[in-house]
Amino acid sequence: MSERNATASEHNATTPATGAAHAADGADDYAARYGEALLPVFGAPQKVLARGEGVHVWDTEGTQYLDLLAGIAVNTLGHAHPALLAALSKQAETLGHVSNFFASAPQIELAEKLLELSGAPAGSGVFFANSGTEANEAAFKIARRTGRPRILALANSFHGRTMGALALTSKEAYRAPFEPLPGGVEFLEAGDEQALADALAPGDVAAVFAEPIQGEAGVRPLAPEYLRALRRLTREHGTLLILDEVQTGIGRTGHWFAHQAVEGVQPDVMTLAKGLGGGFPIGAVISMGPAVHDLLQPGQHGTTFGGNPLAAAAGLAVLGTLAEDDLLAHVRRVGAGFTRDVLALDHPLVEGVRGAGLLLGVALRAPLAKEVAAEALAAGFIVNAPDPSTLRLAPPLIITEAELATFTAALPGLLEAVSARAAADADPALEGEH
Ligand SMILES: *Cc1c(COP(=O)(O)O)cnc(C)c1O
């Protein structure tokens, strides 16, 4: 961080901040220009990427990477998939944007498709947004419209960064700088059925928000029994069960939606985004059944871009390709193979593999995940560390077993390089021995 700032201010001193001067700087000045032109919200980017195809991306230096993160579970079909390109260019040539004063065929078709795939009962409906946080904002407003004051979310939740979604997000470091947040949200330990029953008992809880697998918390699945208890107890108390499938939806776990792996669990509201547009921004809220259908009345919510024909065409291409290429079964098979192969490494640093399908967390026995992710990047693999001891993989769903196996094969070397360095740092005397 401070290194980057130093570079940026040096650059500032010698170069007038004009577009023309920037262009003349040449391609290798991107890091400094990023520091000057973008707000420092994300920290220094790891690389400047220039191009992608299939499961690979290339940076501006021409280095190739196996993309095992897919823009954080977004590039469902990988990069530059022909079906997505064809759908987007055809739609762009036909009709790009219309506002919600008008409807478009792709928007209606995508809504119908989502209702079908989610098994939504008669009287269900879709609201389109542009991102995960916006989908959760809409769900939050739906919850408020029940008239009940309290909302429950789970410890370690992540629901987004806008004020409402942030109120549902448990991480103190994300919340504290922006208080006061919309009120009424309480957090429960995931897995504690008694706490859930106690919290719901007064009958004044509007909704419970939960992620079937807590992705940002380190790929931590809710136990199926707990998910069933969530469904049963919320129904008993007339509380909405709102499942945030922003990260877990759209085939990511080998099911259209992760909750479909657990029989008898259908939410009242489901939110989607990330993988739905295959890289084109889109979010969606599905209200399941007549009881939730009319909680948002005409005029009570809206968005300029939501359900835009381009975004909807992207969504249709993603869902169509997943079905045509039988990718859900593929995701289950490749994910299970990866888990088996990583466990077979029997590496002392690897505690296990969490997750489902191609949303995978390799649990380490030491808080070295950031270092391993950096080592992986240097070796040509993009993964990330959602927590200090978890490596997350969320590759394009088209990845083959052979492609993923190149990472499994490299993993012991990456782990050893990092643990050797950690040992040397802890005991500088060891350094000389290398
Ligand atoms: C990423 C994510 C969000 C927020 O989505 P954005 O598109 O970044 O706003 C919300 N919920 C979950 C579970 C997510 O993984």
UniProtKB/TrEMBL annotation:
GO cellular component, one term: cytoplasm
UniProt similarity note: Belongs to the class-III pyridoxal-phosphate-dependent aminotransferase family. ArgD subfamily.
InterPro entries named in the record: AcOrn/SuccOrn_fam, Aminotrans_3, Aminotrans_3_PPA_site, Class-III_PLP-dep_AT, PyrdxlP-dep_Trfase, PyrdxlP-dep_Trfase_major, PyrdxlP-dep_Trfase_small
Top EC group: transferase
Subunit record text: Homodimer.
SUPFAM superfamilies: PLP-dependent transferases
Pathway membership, UniProt: Amino-acid biosynthesis; L-arginine biosynthesis; N(2)-acetyl-L-ornithine from L-glutamate: step 4/4
Catalytic activity: N(2)-acetyl-L-ornithine + 2-oxoglutarate = N-acetyl-L-glutamate 5-semialdehyde + L-glutamate
Gene3D superfamilies: Aspartate Aminotransferase, domain 1, Type I PLP-dependent aspartate aminotransferase-like (Major domain)
Record's protein name: Acetylornithine aminotransferase
Gene Ontology terms, MF aspect: identical protein binding; N2-acetyl-L-ornithine:2-oxoglutarate 5-aminotransferase activity; pyridoxal phosphate binding
Annotated positions binding pyridoxal 5'-phosphate: G132, T133, F158, D244, E245, V246, Q247, T304
Location relative to the cell: Cytoplasm
Residues that bind N(2)-acetyl-L-ornithine: R161, T303
Cofactor detail note: Binds 1 pyridoxal phosphate per subunit.
Keywords, alphabetical: Amino-acid biosynthesis, Aminotransferase, Arginine biosynthesis, Cytoplasm, Pyridoxal phosphate, Transferase
Listed Low complexity bias regions: 13-22
Organism, as annotated: Brachybacterium saurashtrense
N6-(pyridoxal phosphate)lysine modified-residue sites: K274
Xref: PANTHER family: ACETYLORNITHINE AMINOTRANSFERASE, MITOCHONDRIAL, AMINOTRANSFERASE CLASS III
GO terms (BP aspect): L-arginine biosynthetic process
Region (Disordered): 1-22
Keyword Electron transport found: no
Additional remark text: May also have succinyldiaminopimelate aminotransferase activity, thus carrying out the corresponding step in lysine biosynthesis.
Ranges of compositional bias, category Polar residues: 1-12
Source taxon at top rank: Bacteria
